[in-house]
UniProtKB/TrEMBL annotation:
Protein name in the entry: aminobutyraldehyde dehydrogenase
InterPro entries: Ald_DH/histidinol_DH, Ald_DH_N, Aldehyde_DH_dom
A family per Pfam: Aldedh
GO terms for MF: aminobutyraldehyde dehydrogenase (NAD+) activity
E.C. designation(s): 1.2.1.19
Key words, A-Z: NAD, Sodium
GO biological process: cellular detoxification of aldehyde
Domain (Aldehyde dehydrogenase) ranges: 16-191
Family: Belongs to the aldehyde dehydrogenase family.
Reactions accelerated catalytically: 3-aminopropanal + NAD(+) + H2O = beta-alanine + NADH + 2 H(+); 4-aminobutanal + NAD(+) + H2O = 4-aminobutanoate + NADH + 2 H(+)
Regions that span the bilayer: none
Species of provenance: Castanea mollissima (Chinese chestnut)
Length: 192
């Protein structure tokens, strides 16, 4: 499978950016040991920029707070991601093969799992608003206690090399469904 990876950039604040120090890491196809492209070598400065952007997105985005949007609103995005994953399944599976060295049929199966994960959390998000505030039974009758479910803010997510897109989905989908924003740090060994 002769795929060349075009140079990647960091996706921060809704746009593609070069890393601050303009350094890159080669992407090596583990099956052939060929360099097939490169990825940005993000540094602490890049992380700061990303965290600041995620904080802004959490608290203010196009006139709305992401954290205060409804579960059904967030679910629309998660359903769209699921659909796009399935639309690009073949392309994504091939990239996963070049990135990780796994067999194509396994990578294709992983893409089904990625789409299913986003769909699952979209469905949970659709029902989330009704469960935001739930009474908690306690033995003292004169007190009322509630369990309030709300987003916590920016979450930092780190994924390993062996199931890069699937494990990213396992982390990103629930964070977005809950109303959090996220910073994803994939493995430098498999981050395409």
């Amino acid at each position: 499978m002769a795929i060349q990876i075009t140079s990647r950039q960091l996706f921060i604040d809704g746009e593609w950016r070069e890393p601050v120090l303009k350094k890159w890491i080669p992407v090596i196809n583990p099956a052939t040991e060929e360099i097939v492209g490169d990825i940005p070598a993000a540094t602490a400065e890049d992380v700061e920029i990303a965290v600041d952007a995620a904080r802004r997105a959490f608290s203010w985005n196009e006139g709305k707070y992401w954290a205060s949007t409804s579960g059904p609103f967030r679910a629309k995005f998660l359903h769209a991601i699921s659909s796009m994953i399935l639309e690009r399944k073949s392309e994504l599976a091939k990239l996963e093969v070049v990135d990780t060295g796994k067999p194509l049929d396994e990578a294709a199966s992983d893409m089904d799992g990625v789409a299913s994960c986003f769909k699952y959390y979209a469905e949970l998000a659709e029902a989330l608003d009704a469960k935001q505030k739930a009474p908690v039974s306690i033995p003292v009758q004169s007190f009322k206690t509630y369990d309030l479910k709300e987003p916590i803010g920016v979450v930092a997510l780190i994924t390993p090399w062996n199931y890069p897109l699937l494990m990213a989905a396992w982390k990103i989908a629930p964070a977005l469904a809950a109303g959090c924003t996220a910073i994803l740090k994939p493995s430098e060994l498999a981050s395409v």
